Amino acid sequence: MEIVLVEGDITAQRVDAIVNAANSSLLGGGGVDGAIHRRGGPAILAECQALRASRYGRGLSTGQAVATTAGNLPARWVIHTVGPVFSPREDRSTLLRDCYANSLRIADELGAGTVAFPLVSAGVYGWPVEDAVRQALTVLNAATPAYVTEARLVLFGAETYAVAERVAEAG
Q1: CATH code where residue 164 lies
Q2: 138-148: string of b/e by CB count within 10 Å (b at 16+)?
Q3: Which residues belong to the signal peptide in this entry (predicted)?
Q4: 77-82 and 114-117 beta bridge pairing
């Protein structure tokens, strides 16, 4: 699987699956989650509401992932994952890595060839960007999916992209 760093807007990525840094309610929010729901339209929210009414009555657990339609997005699916809130007193990095691993597993089960990931937890959840990139690349570099041939890490803003390039080059 090829890993590509891209500076840009995740909602504009033409891929099979877009990963959403969702909140546990699955009902939209701010940041990446809000942007995906706004651009994707009501079909995404409708499927999320159906998931809440059936399998996820208490919401989606941190580190887990579930797929819905992509609505009006230039993708077939949105894979929603709930990242952990950063804590300087508690190591939650396993949960963050689970977001990438479980989203990639779902994408592979769907038969997706290309997947776009945001930098999960690095926004309002406060995860330091450098470590968030390191955690994402640790999972993606170790993965051997059957169908996914390209994983894009979509970074919002030139500064975040520069940090990601530096971390990727350092290996």
Answers
A1: 3.40.220.10
A2: ebbeebebeeb
A3: none
A4: unpaired
Render pLDDT for 19-40 as a digit per residue (tens, 0 to 9): 999 999 999 989 999 999 999 9
Tell me 146's DSSP state.
Answer: S
Rounded Cα distance, 28 and 37, in Å: 6
pTM of the model: 0.97
C-beta neighbour count of 25 within 10 angstroms: 15
- Please, which residues have CB within 8 angstroms of residue 162's CB and are 6 or more apart in sequence? none
- The pair of three-digit structure tokens given for residue 14, joined into one six-digit string: 């033409």
Q: Provide the token pair at 75.
A: 């993708």
pLDDT tens-digit profile of 100-136? Answer: 999 999 999 999 999 999 999 999 999 999 999 999 9
Catalytic residues: 33
The tally of domains found in the chain comes to 1
